[in-house]
Amino acid sequence: MIAALLILFPLVTGLICFALPGKRASRLALESSILTLLVSLYAFYAFLNGQQEQLEVSYPWIPSIGINFHVGIDGISLLLVFLTAFLTPLILLSSQSKAYSQSSNFNALVILMQAALIGVFTAKDAFVFYVFWELALIPIYFISLIWGGENRKSVTFKFFIYTTVGSLLMLASILILYTLTPTGSFDISTFYALPLPLSYQYIIFIGFFLAFAIKMPIFPFHTWQPDTYVTAPTEGTMLLSGIMLKMGIYGVIRWILPLTPIPVVEWGWIIILFAVIGIIYASIIALKQPNFKRMVAYVSIAHVGLMAAGLFACNEIALQGVVIQMLAHGINVVGMFYIVDLITRRTGTDVLDQLGGLRNQAPLLATFFLIILMANIALPLTNGFVGEYLLIIGLFQHNVWMAAIAALTIIFGAAYMLNGYQKMMLGAKKDIYNHVTDLTTKELVILVPITIMIIGMGVYPKFFLDISAGPVKEIVNALHQGYSLK
Amino acid sequence: MNALIATSVLGLFAMISEIIGLKKWIWLISTIGIAGILGLTVYEAIAMNGTQEVFYGMMRQDNFSSIFSGLLLFITLLWFLLAKDHYREGNHANPSDQSALIIFATVGGLILTSYTNLTMLFLGIEIVSIPMFILAGSDKKNILSNESSLKYFIMGAFATGIMLFGIALLYGATGSFDLAGISNGLQMTFQNPNMIFLVLIGITFLMVGLAFKVSAAPFHFWVPDVYEGAPTVITAFMSTFVKTAAFVAFLRLFGYGFSHYGESWMKLFENYPIWWYQLLFLAAITILVGNIIAVSQNNLKRTLAYSGIAQAGYVLLTIIVPTADTTSALFIYTASYSIATLVAFTALYHVQKAKNDYSFDAFRGLGKSNPGIAVVLTLAMLSLGGIPPTLGFFAKFYLFKSILALQPEFIFIILLAILGSLISLYYYFKVIISMFGGEETSTKVEINLSDRIILYAVAALIIILGLIPGILLELGSMII
Fold it and tell me: Does B383 lie at the interface with A, CB-CB under 8 angstroms?
């Protein structure tokens, strides 16, 4: 019930927002997103008390071809639903301090996007999953197209086509799986129970993997990402980097690992290799970026590369690391892009060399920036540390060399992040930025929850780790069992 | 079959309505008339038990004919509703003639859903086509419209000639025009390889004629020019109704023919799977040609013409392997395609009328000046491109599913179709990008309130049926 509510409620309010005038639409959107957050917190409560029946629901949708609106929340879904519900109000708040034209449409699209994302994270039916997967793309496409920056037409279109290539291949895989089911069903449990012939596993793996790899994106499918992140309005970038890329990682966990264990184990090393190359490659480019926003975009590729490598390490620790890192990265990267936005709005530029000494004018901003930055570097006691630490241990168990190279990300991270911080915040006071003001209350309302999450998760990660432990264990067991059948 | 007679009477009435001074009411009369006939068809379908031979066995009323008649009448009804503005004072000189011709074409469509005799197939095709030849040229002073009419007529006559030749060859080989008679005749021809040769050539010719009508490549060359030259409302009718009717005729010959006049057709099919390859080739090349050429078009009308070609390719896939499932897929797909295309053409009609331009530039800034039309057109484009949660997505999904479920080796043609729909996104999104991507604002397109409400309501169908496609599935599963 809760799962369906979490999807349908934003879906309906999103549609209502289109019809309302700007001010009221943004208020309704914000209220709706806060309500969704509360419901997601209730989902935690229900989950911890073992009320699984409250979290899962299945209605017949198109019964004649075996499609049910089957959504449910398990430990992994719960964390991602929470991430979505936690970030959406912040993203909406961030947008409200700007004067977007047609703001009711903007709010409506963000809320619709939220519904679709929660749908992706809870779907237990392949058809439902695919519908939400594509549905999530449409709002973000229009957000970037209508409110984006320079060159938005071609950049957003490239993004759209790129991701749709993946989606359609995934559709082919889903259809093949469907034809293999004895009674004709799209339910995930039916898929899990299938004895998949070896040759089919490879085909299905390719279809799913390309869809997810493009969405994440893993090197070398990342070329749409930096341009799109830079061109999209900040809120769009937050949605893309904070939540949407988790769709790809979640997809691998939910669909690829249990369904096609043999190609996962056999081809995993290639993917890890590419992921590690991606980490190094993106880090080096990030070091050289003159623009801060673009730099954060590349940093995101590096971080995702580490998660992607962890996905295919095929052990529990790495997978736990991935799950916790999804949550942490979502929060941190949104914080980071928000800081970028704050600085750009105040100074009119995000070129590192033009900025400097902002700490003098905005000490509070500098402090929050530093905290979020430390989380991005994965300093102990921040949330970034937990994830990266588990990921590197997991990778180390899988392959020492890969782990060693992948761990360079922490050093690189420190290098580019601190370099950026130094150029923007430290140094001599620049008089041209005297008009720069410090954080307002509204901005604090966004930054404080992010900071609380960063430190809270860093100090006591066990709460979140325990939630995802059960399903992660199941998935890893299913993976090894499936492989041993070969 | 009362629907057929009622439609003919309505057509005759529409023709004389101008003489008896009902010119102003012609739109209302036709719309209500078609709606009434649709109701009659539904009533007859419910009341009917079993199948029924009509007109001395030339036609046959069954679930297939009832459901597809319903679909065709529904398309005509939607067309009349959406073309309301076209019938307003001063927009068109001969409303009653036009109405009559459209209704006569509908009669032809109804024949195509229920024929059991190849002469009726021929008659049906002619009755659909001849009004279209005239209507394509109905914008008399426009040279493009004249060209369109002439081109359509010459090419169409040629294609019908080839089809007739095919029918004659089949008659020569089997001694009958009747589907059942041909089936019996085939039994004898199996002993005689020369006769089989005649049958195969005959069927190939029939296929060519029908492929022309459904605008499958490589018989598609007339489509862009004819569609572009004809008045937009007529193009809307041609690309939806006529195409659907032709597909129904195609399916009735290949799908229904097999399943009802059974064994000898099946045997022919199994022993000489040449059609199978022919259709596969047609479908593959249609998908590729339609989608690839559409990419380079710079106006929406021509793009929609090529999109129609490409979409025909997907539908052709269902005819390769005719089963209950794929027939149902054809039904849903043509319904989905027709609704989306009608909506797109109506939006195009209004923009074209206001700006006298139908290139992509005319749509610039429409998202700001006319958000309603822009959203409606976006929905239509998303549906044609097959993006959830529109009906177009479900139709495509179901089509692929039904083909794959039947023949897993078809994964390659499905991958080709997927590639095609990927390319199609490029041109469907062109117009979306120009509507929403620009800073420019354009002049507002004025649309009458009632027209707008109808347009929104039909566009809402795209989403509503996309979310609950169960209704269409239910109907589709009853066809065979």
Answer: no
Q: Give the global pTM.
A: 0.93
| DSSP secondary structure, A304-316, as one string | HHHHHHHHTT-SH
Q: How confident is the model at residue A324 (pLDDT cuts 50, 70, 90)?
A: very high
> Which residues in A170-206 are b (16+ Cβ under 10 Å) and which e?
bbbbbbbbbbbbeeebbbbebbeeeebeeebbbbbbb
Kindly report the nearest CA distance between residue A483 and chain B, in angstroms.
25
> pLDDT (tens digit, 9 = 90+) per residue, B422-479?
999 999 998 888 888 776 667 788 888 989 999 999 999 999 999 999 889 988 888 8
Torsion sign over Cα A450, A455, A456, A461:
positive
Q: Which two tokens stand for residue A417?
A: 């992040």
Residue with tokens 């009832």: B66
pLDDT, tens only, A138-181: 999 999 988 888 888 888 888 998 899 899 999 999 998 998 88
Q: Could you tell me if A310 and A249 are in contact, meaning their C-beta atoms sit under 8 angstroms apart? A: no
Residue B257 has pLDDT above 70, yes or no: no
Residue of B nearest to A184 (CA): B405
The Cα–Cα gap between B356 and B440 comes to 18
Residues 29-68 of A with CB under 8 A from B: 61-65
Task: Count CB atoms within 10 A of the CB of residue B5.
Answer: 12
The distance of Cα B54 from the centroid of its chain, to the nearest Å, equals: 25
- Would you list the domain boundaries of chain B? 1-114, 273-480
Confidence of residue B143 (pLDDT cuts 50, 70, 90): very high
CB proximity B272 to A under 8 Å: no
B354, B78, B355, B81: which is closest to B239 by C-alpha?
A: B78
Chain B residue with CA closest to A67: the answer is B470
Distances (CA, A) of B470 to A3, A64, A473, B43: 23, 8, 38, 21
- Chain B residues with CB under 8 Å of A135 CB are 388-389
- Measured in degrees and rounded to the nearest 5, phi and psi for residue A62 equal -125, 80
**Out of A253-257, A322-326, B264-268, B362-366, least confident range:** B264-268
pLDDT band at B263 (very low <50, low <70, confident <90, very high): low
**Among positive and negative, which fits the CA dihedral B71, B76, B78, B79?**
positive
B367 chain-A contacts, CB cut-off 8 A = 146
Which residues neighbour B46 within 8 Å (Cβ) at sequence distance 6 or greater?
none
Q: Which residues are CB-neighbours of A219 under 8 A, at least 6 positions away?
A: A274, A275, A277, A278, A281, A282, A301, A305
Task: Give how far Cα A423 sits from Cα of A119, A377, A413, A417, Å.
Answer: 41, 17, 15, 10
Tokens of B273: 């799977």
**Closest residue in A to B367 (Cα–Cα):** A146
Give the pLDDT of residue B120: 93
- Using CA coordinates, name the residue in chain A closest to B399: A175
DSSP A72: E
| CA A86 to each of CA A242, B172, B325, B463: distance values in angstroms, whole numbers, following the listed order | 11, 75, 44, 30
- Secondary structure string (H, E, C) spanning A32-53: HHHHHHHHHHHHHHHHHCCCHH
- Residue B176 scores a pLDDT above 90: no
Q: How far off is chain B from A327, nearest CA to CA, in Å?
A: 28
Identify which of B464, B371, B383 has the alpha carbon closest to the alpha carbon of residue A134.
B383
A277 touching chain B per CB within 8 A: no
Each domain of chain A, given as residue ranges in start order, spans 263-486
Cβ of residue A464 closer than 8 Å to a chain B Cβ: no
A64-107 per-position pLDDT tens digit: 888 999 999 988 999 999 999 999 999 998 888 777 778 888 89
Write out residues 91-110 of A within 8 Å (CB-CB) of B.
102
